Each structure stands twice: as structure tokens, then as C-alpha cells.
Amino acid sequence: MIIILAASSLLFGYLVLQRLQLYLARRRIIQENNCKPCPYVLNRDPILGLDILRENVRLADAGRFLSGSQARFRRFKSNTFHNRIITSPIILTVEPENIKTILSLKFKDYDFSNRKVAMDPLLGDGIFNSDGARWASSRHLLRPNFAREQVADLAMLERHFKHLLKYIPADGSTVDLQDLFFCMTMDTATEFLFNHSTNSLRMLDQQESSANEDVQFARAFNAAQQDIVTRVRFGPLYRLLSKNTVKEGADAVKMCHAYVDRFVDDAVRWREEQDLEKKGSSDERYVFIHELAKQTKDKTRIRNELINILLAGRDTTASLLSNMFFEFAKRPEVWRKLREEVEGLQGRIPSYEELRGMKYVKWCLNESLRLNPVVPSNSRFAIRDTVLPRGGGPDGSSPLFVPRGTTVGYSTYTMHRRQDLYGADAEEFRPERWEALRPSWEYLPFNGGPRICLGQQYALTEAGFVTVRLAQEFKRLESRDTNGGVWVEGLTLTLCSKNGTKVGLFRE
Ligand code: HEM
């Protein structure tokens, strides 16, 4: 009994000492950095913070998750506030200096935390879903494959664009461009990554057999992505969902892996033949999957990296195009200016340099990514006690202490619509504003710091190319939006239009 009592008091003493040490260490950080507390707290429910969870679900269902989050910043008249869901502390910020600190200056103080759990089944530990040394090794492996020469295969884009054109009615009747863009980016990304295109635009053909395995893969990939969204939404409660939902997700993931594995097997076999024949491959056409096979024979690793890039690159580019064309359809003057710029090509397909030199096309892309950033919010998880430069004190100008275990979320959507940064018309689509804008961390569609998007040039090339080619083909487009042209958030893994991009296009 005495031994138990002595052991308990020792343990108690040890825990008290630990707490005291932690308290003193934190007090030192707070004093040294002049941190002040942030007085703005979102939760009204002081115990579990379930009020905000409920409100978030309601906002998401109404297609107002992002605008609702923007309204919270406005309500507080603050660019940083606190929140808590269940027991997890959260800091939300739209302060460029804070975002720069999380993503770059104090990069090593943060990781992804929960995101990994939801994405693991489909993505494994590929670049998009890993941290630390594992991520650094993926980045090192993949980065050389995004050099300019590799992302500028305009002949490939033209082939798929021609295919897309076939699905646009010639008589001006209504078409949902969003559906077409999502298929086309799947087709181009799979050709770029696997050296084999799904040609999923065929999904839109009623006659096309759904037994085709490329088309089946495209469908399974969509379902596997939906499974990630469900996992993110339900967190630990995911396992309580109906058996069918869970099984559908698992089946989709299995099918995606099996489909990609075939191409990986071919690539590794190709590399082994190269090794046997001691062939150099300098005279060969660039093939992404072969480049990976040259560097590793680990088949699971190659498959994971390919699926990670497909996930990172496909919906994002399609969403950008969909959001931008939603705006074009309502703004004949913007379309006219685009066509004026494109007329310089005299009907030719643009070269990479010509495409890059098109100022108005670039302004439109920038403006769409500003107003509706396709990755509209993001977060990082503090793995040690750290400090943000702003957000403390009533006016938010003092540093803010961030205890280990805090999630720091940032809303690119709200930051991109701040009137103090972009002017009184920040909520409007106005490409001309880019004539004078030279933003830094206040404009972050592709993130910044060591994890900046690897596919930025690829995406801008593809989206710019499709825009130029459509402007060459069609004189006029007309919005046929079912919601009177009022854009509604369609938020899954990326941000697109909930009601699609329904338009009529006219050649004359
Ligand atoms: C408009 C199109 C795109 C946008 C707005 C975009 C945006 C982003 C953002 C915000 C991130 C950071 C995510 C995070 O760290 O939480 C990211 C990462 C990434 N993106 Fe993109 N992306 C686009 C297209 C692409 C394309 C086409 C590819 C590849 C073909 C690609 C490949 C990647 C990869 C591999 C990463 C992970 C980088 C890393 O963690 O080191 N992205 N992208």
C-alpha cells in the first residue's frame, strides 16, 4: 500500500513538474516574442464547440461554406480568430504574413496531421500526402519532371482539344462546359503521367460502352475522390457510415490501383530491358512514367506518386477553366478583348512562347484564381510551440502564440477578397486589375514556400491553351446558368461551380 502511495505521489509530482516546465517554457516564448492573446473566439458552445460544427455542415449544404467563413472574419473585423472543434484548438487567419510564416519561414514547425488519414487509402505516402523526409524525397524525385519542356506538349493538348470540340453543339444549344473540362483534364493528365490517355470524354457518348476499362477507371477515380471528401467530412465517424458507402469507396480505390499498376509494370519492364541492353535513352521522347522507372523500381512508390499527381492536377485545372468560363459567359466585353488578343495568331495554334506572351489571357487566369481560388482553404498542424507574427491583441498587430497541437487554417478565398488588399470591387471579376497588381503572399492560388504547387506551369499552359483555342473557335458565348448567373460554390476537393458551367457557344 505504502509503495503504491509513494509511486502515485512520485507520478503526480512528475506530472506537476512537467506542467510547470511547459508553463515556464511557454511563458518565455510569449515574453520573448511579445505575444498577445487574440480576443476573438468563434465558439459559443464552450465545452465541445459543436455549434460551429453544425453551422459548418449547414453552410456547406447550402453552398455557402466559403462565403460563410468570409462573413465570420467580417463580423469580427479581424483577420485572425480562434475556434475549437471538439477538443482541437484552431486558429483561422487571412493575414499574408501569417500564411508566409506557416508555409515558408517556420515550415518545419508544421505538418499535415489529419489530412493524411482521409487520403491514405487512395494516395498512400506520395508527395501530396506525406511530410518530412518522405515528402522531401518525393519532391526530389518528381521536380525534374516539371521542367518547361515537359509541360509544354501543345500537340498533345491540341489532340484532346479537338476531341472536346466534338462535344460542343454547333447550333448554340446548351452544353455544360464543366463536364467537358473535367473529362478533358483527366484525358490529358493520364496521357502525361501514364503515357496512356483514358479518353474519358467518351463517357459523354451515350453509345460508348461503359465496359471500357479506361472509362471505368475515370469513373472509379471520381468515386475514390468522393470517398476522400466523405472521410474528411465525417472524420472518425466514417466507419459508422453504411456498409455500402464504405465498400463503394474501398472498391473504387482498389480499381484505381489495379488500373495504374498495369502501366507501372510496363514501365519497370521497360527499364529492365533498357538495363539489359545497356541502352541510353537520350534520343527518346520524354515519358513521365519512364523517368520515374529510371529512378526507382519500387512499383508501389511509382503508383502512389502518379495517383498523387493525378489527384493534385486534374480537378484543379478543370475547376479553374469551369470557374473562368462561368464568368466569361456573363461578360461579352471580356470575351471580346480575349478574342482581340487571340486574333494576333491569325488562326494559328499558339506556340508555348506565344501563349506565355498573351497578357489578357494571363490576367483572366489570375483573376479567376483570385476570385475563386480552386484550392480555397487549407491548414497546417503545429508540431511544436511556435509563434505567428500577427493576430495578437485587439487590433491583431501583435505576434500570437501557437501551442503545439493547434491547427492553423487559412482561407485563400477570403484573403483574395479582402477590400483593403484588392480594392472596393474585390468581389468582382475584373481582369484589368492585373495591369497594376504585383501581389506577393496576399495572392496564393498555388501556395508558397517549399511545398509550392509543382504543376503551376503545367496548369497555366493547359488552361491558357484551352482558352485561346475556344476563343479562336467561338465568336460569342451566352450564359445558360440555371441560377440566373449567380455562381454557387461547388466545394469538394477543389472549388468549382455547383451548377456547372452551362453555356451556348456561337461560331458567328
Ligand atoms: C489551377 C491548377 C492548380 C492549382 C490552383 C493548384 C494548387 C495547388 C496548391 C494550393 C497546392 C498546395 C497544397 C498543399 O500543400 O496543401 C498544390 C500542390 C501540388 N500540386 Fe498543384 N495546383 C494546380 C494544378 C496542378 C497540376 C496540373 C499538377 C500536376 C500535373 C499539380 C501538382 C501538384 C503537386 C505534385 C503538389 C504537391 C507539392 C508538394 O507538396 O510538394 N498541380 N497545388
From TrEMBL:
Pfam families the UniProt entry points to: p450 (PF00067)
Signal sequence segment: none
Listed GO MF terms: heme binding; iron ion binding; oxidoreductase activity, acting on paired donors, with incorporation or reduction of molecular oxygen, reduced flavin or flavoprotein as one donor, and incorporation of one atom of oxygen
Gene3D superfamilies: Cytochrome P450
Cofactor dependency: heme
Keywords attached to this entry: Heme, Iron, Metal-binding, Monooxygenase, Oxidoreductase
PROSITE patterns: CYTOCHROME_P450
Record flagged with keyword Iron: yes
Top-level division of the source organism's lineage: Eukaryota
Binding sites annotated in the UniProt record for heme: 453
Family statement: Belongs to the cytochrome P450 family.
Protein name (database record): Cytochrome P450 alkane hydroxylase
